[in-house]
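Subject: Sanity check before I submit

Could someone independently write out the structure tokens for this chain? I want to compare against mine line by line before I put it in a report. The sequence has 290 residues.
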Amino acid sequence: MSVNHSSESKSLWGHAWTELKRDKAAVFSMIVIGGYVLLAALTFFGVIAGEWSKEIGASYSAPSLDALFGTDIFGRSVVYKTLKGAEMAIGIGFSTATISTIIGVTLGLTAGYFGGKVDEFIVWFYTSMASIPYIMLLFAVTMVLGKGTSSLFLALGITSWVGLCRLVRGEVMRHKQREYIQAAAALGAGNIRRMFKHILPNIFHIVIIQFSLRFQQAIKSEVILSYLGLGVQGQPSWGTMIDDSKLELARGVWWQLTAATVAMFVLVLALNLLGDALRDSLDPKLKGKA
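---
Independent answer below. Compare away.
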């Protein structure tokens, strides 16, 4: 019984991949996201934009062939800063999504599977978290942890797991009564094995979809925090570039704001399109398989 259910799960993933390959928007989004990841890796290892802090021209030079997006107040290349911002965005998105996914899946599995007092406590905990406005909660956690990239990653991660936890809990409560779980229990599988070996693989499509949503939410949250002065320190990010542009627009300096905004818009749009495609291809309810 367990084997048959596993085969159905594999069939779902195979069908989902086929559907994704047919979706031109999804393929384009994967190419765009892959390009951003490649740029982030190249900037991280200093292959490109390694000298982003170097002065290449006069202060606030307008875009030209020598500097495609001009320079900032210190004469630094806006293109290089934008590329370094991509490195920070990918790092923040991946780190935050990973932390929040681990917390959300673990608590959701635990609450949904064990029920009782354990479930009541976890539900009370995430309900309390959800009752606080997200930006206020994020702001408070950031203030407690202090400024810095590591603190920012952690703050974003531990404040964005509630939605995933709620979804996983509901799915686990539905799956734990099914025959394949009862068969696993009859064969001697313990609670941990049933949770992580049998239930989790069959709800993993939800985790993948939510991971993509957390990824893009983290990028947007970093921009907000950087705008408030609590974001990335000592390194360019799209948020700090937008923050720096507050006073530049009055002087007609639009290129730094434009570069950061366009870079963020393209990445978030690609993540949105890919998230929609993943939902359409992985959710059995939308495919009439439930």
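---
OP: Matches mine. For the report I'm noting this point. The chain has a mean pLDDT of 84.
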